[in-house]
Amino acid sequence: MTRWNRCLLLGAIAVLLPALAGCEAGASAPTLEFHPANPGTDVTQNGITIDNLFVLGAPLGSAIPPGGRAGVFLAIESENGDRLVSVSAPGAASSVKLAGGPIDLPAQTLVDLSGPEPHVVLTGLTSPLSGGDTVQLALTFAVAGVVIVGVPVEPKAYDYATFSPPPVIPTPTVSAKPPSARPPSAKPKAHASGSASASASASPSTTP
Fold it and tell me: Is 105 a member of any domain?
């Protein structure tokens, strides 16, 4: 075998070795795994892991108007057990509602709040909200404290087209004020004096 042939053989082996190693890795090889796109935010802080956190906006080409509501979707896992006490959106919404109150997070258990109905709702939006915007959320946990996250707004389209909007909160009715039991009595009118009445009623005498 010539020196040139030996070089070609060694080069071919060097190219084939990575491919053979990938085949031997089987179905668990990283190159064979499919990782779907994750449009939301992922964060791990103070023993709390948050996956695919996003705000659902309006359909494509439109926006949720100021004063409206928007759902928040996510999945949470606590390393040692915790509770999501409250959520706020400074500068984006007047308040954030947790459906059913604070959310318990058992240790090392994924709590799925990814829909299709929102468990976290932004209410009283301060400005129009549409896909592509970013909202800052502050999530307060009983043990981990406050976790501040920049959250993307996804349009209600594609994979999220079937997600439910926040439920309508009924407006409380105001009952009419009941009428008083008895109207106030009218004050008696003042009568003219007797002398004035007598002079007014007197008629002049006539001479026959």
Answer: yes
CA distance 161 to 80: 35
Residues 6+ apart with CB under 8 A from 2: none
What is d(CA 182, CA 127) in angstroms, rounded to the nearest whole number? 51
Per residue in 163-199, pLDDT tens?
Answer: 877 766 544 444 444 455 555 555 555 554 444 444 4
How many structural domains are present in the chain? Answer: 1
Helix (H, G, I), strand (E, B) or coil at 197: helix
Peptide bond into 128 cis (omega under 30): no
Residue with tokens 């795994």: 33
Instruction: Judge whether 111 lies within some domain.
Output: yes
pLDDT > 70: percent of the chain: 61
Give pLDDT, residue 19.
47
pLDDT at 103: 96
Distance CA 75, CA 53 (A): 7
- Amino acid identity, residue 95? S
2 part of a folded domain? no
User: Global pTM?
Assistant: 0.63
Residue 129 in domain: yes
Q: What is the CATH number of the domain that holds 53?
A: 2.60.40.1890
The domain in which residue 100 lies consists of 44-160
